[in-house]
Amino acid sequence: MPLISFALALVLALGGTPLTAQAPSYPTAWDPALLNRPDVKAALGHLEREFPQQVEEWIRIAQMVGKSTQEQARGAYVKAEMTRAGLQVRVDSVGNVTGVRKGTGGGPTIVFAAHMDIVHAVETNLAVRRDGDTLRAPGIFDNSSSVANMLAAIRALNAAKVVTKGDLVFVATVQEELGLRGMQYWFDHNPKPDLLIAMDGGLGPVSYGALGIYWTRYRYTSDGSHTLQSRGKPTPVLAMADAVQRIYQLQPPALPNGAVINVGQVHGGVIFNGIPQDLYFTVDLRSSDPVLLDSLDRQIGRIAQEAADRARVGLTVEIEQKNRAGGTERMLADARRHPLVQTAIDIQQQLGVRFGMPGAQQALATGSTDANIGVVAGVPSIAIGRSYGGDQHTLSEWAHWPSALQGTKLTLLLATTFGDGIRPVRAFVP
Questions:
Q1: DSSP one-letter string for 110-129
Q2: pLDDT at residue 122, rounded to an integer
Q3: Residue 376 near residue 336, CB atoms below 8 Å
Q4: Using CB atoms within 10 A as the burial measure, which of 151, 205, 349, 363 is most buried?
Q5: Pairing between strand 381-384 and 195-199?
């Protein structure tokens, strides 16, 4: 029986029904009694004792070059640590490092994915500065913390001799910031797992969806001309200005179930005194709705072509990436009911994690992490937090280092909860 069917059958057998129309109950596999299981208790104790060393390792990783496509130093470090921990380790042709902790058999295969890359250039100063309970450095939060959390969880499982039926597969991915390329490659070259847990984001709401992300470059070309001979001649500048203005007039519904459009780059021209021969702008288009995503993509393409025709210039459309959308909240109703989602919420509540302001959503039908690849592939997938932090993708990025212990415990408890297969479940009672 599929995991979700089994879980729902148990909920119904136990009489699980929504408390109110406003607060539906969802199946969960969390049982607080797990905290008293000797091996799990020992593993959590190991995490607590070794946490200062985990933070130091986190800092070491954060100070390694990690620009997308240049994650080699981080990959070599992760490979060495996974090997030292006794995992079956391999590195694929794009640089993903996979470590398998074998189970005894009969349980689900669970992938934990943490991306190694950061957005910052190689020459960026990555020195980490301690400021009380805060670490400050580019890339310290996104996603160096998750790599350290992953390694710490592996060591704790080993130290406590935790045995699972299912295989626990730890994947340190590459090129996540370039469109989830490492995770996509991993899915294309490995059997589908039963569950995928991406370690990426802030503690709190659990993402179970996939925000579709289309990156497209629209390039306009012309013969060019010296300024003195430019009067009346075709210019890509007019085409680009026309297209960008009309694109921003598109007003789709807002996220999470609508879309967002941004022109992130405008490039071209090399001299003051001439018509440019080559100009381009880029569009970052995002939506959780696959129908809306494709519709807007076509609209933007038509706008770009019409602008080229009016300006009498050439147009080339260059697709940088097309990460598919997982679906709106309504489309993902079954995914929300999977025990993986509510279990991650319940464990965080057990650990004292804050979910934001009162009434804030605990689960989001969206996401921009490696979990997206699993969602689109039909694998039950979530993204969980690594710590509290913020300002990612900027030079002022920061992370609250004490909360990384909660993030690591969350990873370990998900591994032990699902590693032996589904446990008896009940309706969640807040």
A1: EEEEEE--BSS-TTS----E
A2: 96
A3: no
A4: 151
A5: parallel
Distance CA(108)–CA(125), nearest Å, equals 42
User: Rounded to an integer, what distance in angstroms lies between the CA atom of residue 341 and that of residue 328?
Assistant: 16
Question: Which residue is listed with tokens 């446990």?
Answer: 423
Query: ∠427-423-47 over CA atoms, to 5°?
Result: 105
The answer to whether 425 touches 28, Cβ cutoff 8 Å, is yes
Tokens of 404: 């990384």
- Residue 4 contacts by C-beta under 8 Å, 6 or more apart in sequence? 27, 334, 337, 338, 339, 380
Nearest to 144 by CA among 154, 133, 152: 152
Residues 6+ apart with CB under 8 A from 62: 126, 128, 135, 137, 139, 140, 144, 145
Distance CA 101, CA 371 (A): 20
Write down the pLDDT at residue 1. Answer: 38
The beta-strand segments (E) located in 208-334 are: 212-221, 225-226, 259-268, 274-275, 278-287, 314-323
Q: How far apart are the C-alpha atoms of 34 and 423, rounded to whole Å?
A: 11
Maximum C-alpha span of the chain: 83
Answer yes or no: is pLDDT of 215 > 50. yes
Model pTM above 0.85: yes
In tens, the pLDDT along 129-154 reads: 999 999 999 999 999 999 999 999 99
Q: How confident is the model over 22-50, as pLDDT tens digits?
A: 557 899 999 999 999 999 999 999 999 99
Closest CA to 174 of 160, 163, 158, 185: 185
In this prediction, what percent of the chain has a pLDDT beyond 90?
Answer: 90
pLDDT at 2 over 50: no
Q: How far apart are CA 217 and CA 243, in angstroms?
A: 12
Q: Domains of the chain, with CATH numbers?
A: 3-210+327-427 (3.40.630.10), 212-323 (3.30.70.360)
Assigned token pair, 281: 């702008």
Structure tokens at 213: 């992300």
